[in-house]
Amino acid sequence: MxxxxxxxxxxxxxxLTAPRCCLxxxxxxxxxxxxxxxxxxxxxxxxxxxxxxxCSSPHKLVGVVGLEIHAQIRSNTKLFSASPVHFSxxxxxxxxxxxASLPGTLPVLNKRCVEAAVMTGLALHCTIxxxxxxxxxxxxxxxxxxxxQITQQxxxxxxxxxxxxxxxxxxxxxQVVRKSVHIKQIQLEQDSGKSLHDDLxxxxxxxxxxxxxxxxxxxxxxxxxxxxPFGVRTEVKNINSARYLAxxxxxxxQRQIQVLERGGTVQNETRxxxxxxxxxxxxxxxxxxxxxxxxxxMVYDDQASLPPGLDxxxxxxxxxIRDTLPELPSVTRDRLVHTYNxxxxxxxxxxxxxxxxxxxxxxxxxxxxxxxxxxxxxxNELLGQLKQRDQSLSQSPISSSVxxxxxxxxxxxxxxxxxxxxxxxxxxxxPGKRARAIIEEKDMGLVNxxxxxxxxxxxxxxxxxxxxxxxxxxxxxxxxKLMGLVQKETKGRAxxxxxxDILKDKTS
Amino acid sequence: MxxxxxxxxxxxLALREGKVSPVDLCRKCLNRIKKTQHLNAYISxxxxxxxxxxxxxxxxxLKGSPKGLLDGIPxxxxxxxxxxxxxxxxxxxMLKDYTPPFNATVVQKLLDQGAVLLGKTNMDxxxxxxxxxxxxxxxxxxxxxxxxxxxxxxGLDPNSDWVVTGGSSGGSAAAVxxxxxxxxxxxxxxxxxxxxxxxxxxxxxxxxxxxxxRHGLIxxxxxxxxxxxxxxxxxxxALVLDVLQGVDVKxxxxxxxxxxxxxxxxxxxxxxxxxxxxxxxxxxGLSMETVEQWSRVADMFERAGARxxxxxxxxxQYSIVCYHVLCCTEVAxxxxxFDGLEYGHRSEMDSxxxxxxxxxxxxxxxxxxxxxxxxxxxxxxxxxxxxxxxKAQKVRRLITEDFKHVFNSGVxxxxxxxxxxxxxxxxxxxxxxxxxxxxQEDVFTQPVNLxxxxxxxxPTALSRRGLPIGLQLIAPALQDKRLLSVAQWIEQRVAFPSxxxxxxxxxxxxxxxxxxxxxxxxxxxxxxxxx
Lengths: 508, 531
Fold this sequence. Notes:
The complex is a heterodimer. Chain A is an alpha+beta fold. In chain A, 35% of the residues lie in helices and 19% in strands. Chain A folds into three domains: 13-297, no CATH class; 329-441, no CATH class; 450-507, Arc Repressor Mutant, subunit A (Orthogonal Bundle), CATH 1.10.10.410. In chain A, the strands form four sheets. A nine-stranded mixed β-sheet of chain A has the order 3-7-8-1-2-11-12-13-14, covered by helices on one side. A three-stranded antiparallel β-sheet of chain A has the order 6-5-15, with no helix packed on it. Chain A has a two-stranded antiparallel sheet with strand order 4-16. The radius of gyration of chain A is 31 Å and the shape is elongated. Chain B has a domain at 8-269 and 456-526: Amidase signature (AS) domain (Amidase signature (AS) enzymes), CATH 3.90.1300.10. Chain B has helices at 8-16, 22-35, 47-62, 105-112, 148-154, 158-161, 170-177, 194-200, 234-244, 288-303, 319-334, 353-364, 367-380, 382-408, 426-429, 434-441, 446-451, 480-494, 515-528; strands at 42-45, 74-78, 116-121, 183-188, 203-206, 226-231, 274-278, 307-311, 413-417, 454-462, 468-475. Chain B is an alpha/beta fold. Chain B is globular. In chain B, helix 2 packs antiparallel against helix 3 (47-62), helix 9 runs antiparallel to helix 18 and helix 11 (319-334) packs across helix 13. An eleven-stranded mixed β-sheet of chain B has the order 1-3-2-4-6-5-10-11-9-7-8, sandwiched between helices. Chain A binds chain B through residues 97, 100-109, 136, 138, 140, 142, 145-148, 204, 206, 287-289, 292-295, and chain B through 81-82, 90, 95, 98, 100-102, 104, 214-219, 221-223, 249-253, 329-330, 333, 335-339, 341-343, 353, 357, 377, 380-382, 385, 389. Chain A: InterPro entries: Asn/Gln-tRNA_amidoTrfase_suB/E, Asn/Gln-tRNA_Trfase_suB/E_cat, Asn/Gln_amidotransferase, Asn/Gln_tRNA_amidoTrase-B-like, GatB, GatB_Yqey_C_2, Gln_synth/guanido_kin_cat_dom.
C-alpha cells in the first residue's frame, strides 16, 4: 500500500523533524488551531510514506498517525465573545460573562476569525464549505467551564486541501525533496482555559484568558499490518513541542504494538502526554451534539452571490479574501530560485526568516553584485552575526541599503572582499555608520597609489633575492608568494592587478 | 381607586396624566403581593429597588419625559431570567445564591421603557415541570383556588384543597392572575407559559422562535426556548411584544419581526379567516368541559362567517417522545456548567475534583433535573446518538412539516385546547411523577415549540369547579400579529372575568366588570399618545 506517494512532512521548520522516517508514519494528519479562545484546525492526512516501504513487511505492525494542530488566530477579540485577546495578560483579566460560562450567555461568532479560517483554507488549497456547522464537544474538566467546547465536527469551514512542502533529504540530508500532504479539514474551535496544578496544596488554578501563545498538537495513533484495515486509534493530547510530539508518537506506537503482541486490544481513548514521565495516561471520553445557539455559518463566493437584504458588513466573501491572500511560501521560494538563480536550499533560509525575503530583494535592487554572492552575504554574514547576538532580523542595525552600499564598494573594486568583511564587522560595533565612513576612518580603502605600491614592491623585491632569481629563471609561480607578501604589508588593501603588474616589471 | 386601572394602557395614561403616581401604583402592587403571599408566586420581591425605580419614573413623568411606553408600569420576571444584582435561582438549590452581573435582554428592554421590576417569580426547578410544584422553594398555588367560584362551587377548603397553577411559569401566571403585576415574563419550552396561563385564566403568548432574545434566559432547551409574555389582556400582550421583539446582537438566533409594530386593530373581520381544528388534539384525557369550550369558540367563528375546517397533524402523537429526547439531550449539555466551580452550589466534600463535582450536583439538583441529565447523557453516547438524538431530530422535522402542510393548504390559524382540563388539585397532581405529568400536560403545546411557531393561550370560561379553561391559537412563524388579532377577537366575545370581579370591594374602589368595555378606547388613545 505504500509507495505511490512521497514521504510526508510539514513546512514550518519545527515540523521538518517531526515525520522522520519511522516504522510507521504511513498517514499523517495535521491540525492547526488557536490557542487563546479560538483555534483553527487544519487536518492533514497522507495515505503513504515511502520511507515506510523499506521497513514495513507484510507481517509487521506499523503505526498510522494523524495530527491535530491547534493554532491561534490573530484577532482582537475572542472567537465567541467580545473580550479582547492580549498575550501574557494577567490571569482572568480578559474574561467576559460568556467566557466564564455564566448561565444564559450565548456565543456570538467573530467575523475576523471566520475570515482567517477562510484565508487559511485558501492558502492550503481547501474546498471552502459555503455552509458550515458548529457542534458542542462535551467533557468534564476544570478549565472548561461550560462543560463543552464549541467546535466544527460535522461540517467544518474548509475541507480537502493539500500542502506542498520541501524538506532536506538524500543520504547526506543536503538535497531538497519536494513533498505534499493532504489536509483533511480546517475547523474553528473555541479554546479551553488553562489549568495550573498546585500539587503541594492540592489546588487547581484556572486561567480563563486562554492565551498561551504556543502551538499545541494532538496526535491520533493506531497500528496495523500494511494491507489490513486501520487499527483502533487513541488520541494523545496536549503536546507542545516537536520533540515531544515525536517522542509521544513513538511511545504510543510502541505501547499499542506491545498491547497487541501480548494478545490485548487497544481501547479507543484519549490520553494526555506527560512529558515528565514519558508516558501517556488515560483521559476522558467526549460526547457531541449540534450547537443550538449558532445558526449555520454561511460564506459567499462573491458580491453577486450575496442574498438580498444581507447586512454587507456581516458577510464573509471568499473572493475578497482570495484577493488579499499574500504570496504563499512555496510560490515565493520558486520565484526566488527562478528570478535570482539561487539554490533551492537558500530560498528556504530566506523564506523561513521573518522579513529576510524582502531584505534580500531590497539588497538585490541596490547592487550589481551577483545574487549568489549576495545570498552568501545574507545567509552567512548577516544571519551569522544575528545568531551570535541572538537577535532577529528586525533588530539588525544593518539595513538593506547599508549592506547594499558595502557590497557595491566591493563590486566596484574600492575594497577587497576580505576588507568588506572587516567593514561589516565594524558596522555592528557602530550602528548607523555607513561603509564609506568606516573605510575612510580606518584607512581601509584599496591602496592604488602607484608610487606607494612601487615603494612597497621594491622593498619586497630587495629583501627576497632568492625568489626574484627563481622568477627570473622561469618559475613564474613564485610571483604569487611575493604578491602575498605585498598584501600582508598593506593588510590586504593593495589593488592586486596593480601589484601584479609592478612585481612583473621589477622581476623581469 | 387604582383597581380600575386594570390594563396597561389605562394605567399608562393615568400615570402620564398624573392621575396616579408610579410610587402609589408600585406600593399597591407590593401590598397585594404581601396579601397573596400564600400563593408563593414570588421567590424574591425586590421592594426597595422597585420603589426607587418607581420614584425615578415619577420624576420623569412629572417632567413630562417618560422613558417609554411602559414607564412606571410594574412587572414581574420568572426566576430563570438573569437580573443584574438580583438573585436568579431557577428555583434550584444549585443557584439559590447566584446573582448575575447582567440583565437578560428582555428584562433590560422593559427597564429601558421605565417599567418597574417587582420581583422574581416561582417556577419548577430549571423550568422542568408542568405544575410549578417541583421547585426548591415550594409549589405555587393557583389564585383561583381562593376565589369565590371555586370555594362556592366545590365546597372545598382552599387551604388544603388548592389547585396547581400549571407550569413551569406558574409564579408568573399567578402573579398576573392575582393582579400583583400588570405583566410577567415566563419562558416557554414545551408549553411552560401557555399551560399556567390557561390554568390561571390569563393571556399567555409564546412568540415565534427567535423573535425575542434568549440572552440572559437560563436555558432549558436552547432550540425550543422562547421568552413568554403573560398579561391580563391580548392587547397588553401585543403591546409588550412590541417592546420586546427584534434582533439582538447577543443572540445569533434572533430574527427580524415581519412588521415593526405588533399593534393590533380593535375590530377584526374574521369572515375571510380559515380556522383549522386538528383532529389529533382530541386526545385521551381531554375533559368534556374543555371540549365544550373548544366547540363554543369554533362555533363563534363559524357564525361570524369564518371557515372552520378539520385538519390533520399526523405526527402529533410522536411529539412527546421526540420532545423528551431533545429536551434531555440539551438539558444534559446545558447543565454541565453547573459544577460549583465558578458559581452556584459547591459541596463541602472536596476530597477530589470528581467528588466535588458529583456531590455538588447531587445536592444542587432535584430528582427531576438529575433524571433528565442522566437520560440526556445516555442519548448523547456515541452508540445511542443515532438511535435517539438523530431520530428525534427527524421526527421534529416531520412535526414541523405537518404544520407547514396545514398552513399551506389555506388554514390561517389553528384552534386547540391549551390543556386537557382545568387545574388539578395539588394533592392529586403530586400522585404522578413529574415526567408523566409533563408528558400529559404538554401534549397540545409541545408541537408548537418543536416547529418554532407562534401561539397564544386565552382564557375563555370558568369550569363548573370555578377554575379557568383556556384555548390555544397557533399561527405560522412570524404571524404573531395576526395571531394576536384573532385572539383579541375571541377575547372580546367570551367575556372572561377578572379575579377581582369576585373580590370584596377594596378600599372603596368600584368593581371593574365594566372595565373591558372601555379598554378598546384606551388602547386607541394609548397608541396615539405614544411616539
